[in-house]
Amino acid sequence: MAPVLELADVTVRRGTHTLLDDVSWTVREGERWVVLGPNGAGKTTMLQIAATQMHPSEGTATVLGEILGAVDVFELRPRIGYTSAAVAERIPRGERVLDVVLTASYGVTGRWREEYEEFDESQALLILRLMGVEHLVDRTFGTLSEGERKRVLIARALMTDPELLLLDEPAAGLDLGGREDLVSNLGKLARDPEAPVLVLVSHHVEEVPPGFTHVLMVREGKITAQGPIAETLTAQNLAITFHMPLILEERDGRYAARRAPR
Ligand SMILES: Nc1ncnc2c1ncn2[C@@H]1O[C@H](COP(=O)(O)OP(=O)(O)OP(=O)(O)O)[C@@H](O)[C@H]1O
């Protein structure tokens, strides 16, 4: 399968701080990746590179076959869906949910005078239904719960029919029910052969949706493990990544981790 995202020996520096240190990672068509690591590990930095929002200080990043630095990122960005806390902050609180999703077609946040086709509206409704939030279509973004907002943002990221969907901590701040609804929606997406390549950043193995195929673990800007979930998502790799002895359990494609007794 062709690479959709390829980081080759990527280092990112800001002042004296090394955010990513010689990272090499390839994501191929059809794959669904979860990126796990503790706070400050460099996960968001990796996703920002994949989203063409940041360039490496050293090394090469190739996104959808184009090398960053040698391509107009504004042509590339419509092919990438991206949700993060920073994207959420840019959405006007008074924006209608349908418009939050529709405006992604123009790469803007906040509807103004753009004209949308009936096809766009039915597409937006279809995606909102896929994410289980179709009933919220006439509500304003500011009145939604955190979990509802997260699902609307994923719908927005899917609106341009992207080839690569990047989700930075979509379950952060959700209660148990909200997390389970989201994991279930993402599990459905993961199993849909028409869905884009998925990369999901998380701190918690409990948030790994069933159907995800690969895991990348990162600590202090360095990759600690990467590969197919079945063989890579192990207690040993998690212990190295989170710097703590851990017990990992798997049941019906879902995972749970806790500290190992001393
Ligand atoms: N502009 C910057 N200048 C200096 N350090 C930075 C800058 N941006 C990020 N960092 C640092 O780089 C490290 C990696 O940040 P990043 O946001 O990628 O981590 P993360 O794994 O996503 O963390 P979290 O799970 O807490 O969101 C952190 O220690 C952060 O403080």
UniProtKB/TrEMBL annotation:
The keyword Nucleotide-binding applies. InterPro entries: AAA+_ATPase, ABC_transporter-like_ATP-bd, P-loop_NTPase. It comes from the Bacteria. The lineage of its organism: Bacteria, Bacillati, Actinomycetota, Actinomycetes, Propionibacteriales. PROSITE patterns: ABC_TRANSPORTER_2. The keyword Flavoprotein does not apply. Pfam families: ABC_tran. This is ABC transporter ATP-binding protein. Keywords: ATP-binding, Nucleotide-binding. One of its GO terms (molecular function) is ATP binding. Residues 5-245 form the ABC transporter domain.
